[in-house]
Amino acid sequence: xxxxxxxxxxxxxxxxxxxxxxxxxxxxxxxxxxxxxxxxxxxxxxxxxxxxxxxxxxxxxxxxxxxxxxxxxx
Length: 74
Fold this sequence. Notes:
It is a single chain. The protein has one helix and five strands; from the N terminus they run βββββα. By secondary structure, the chain is α+β, with helices and mostly antiparallel strands.
């Protein structure tokens, strides 16, 4: 018996907050996290529990947010 693949809609919205670029990550229209520029590094923030992770790139920050969301999803 095989599982069916679930189609999950992930969208990323680029905004500017306090003159700094911010990527907001949404799943199904719900904000799950943000990737914020911090000098030459990036911070990945989860909105559910305000966890903060350091990342070397925006792509890595996006991956961290998605991984942590799916890891702790109820």
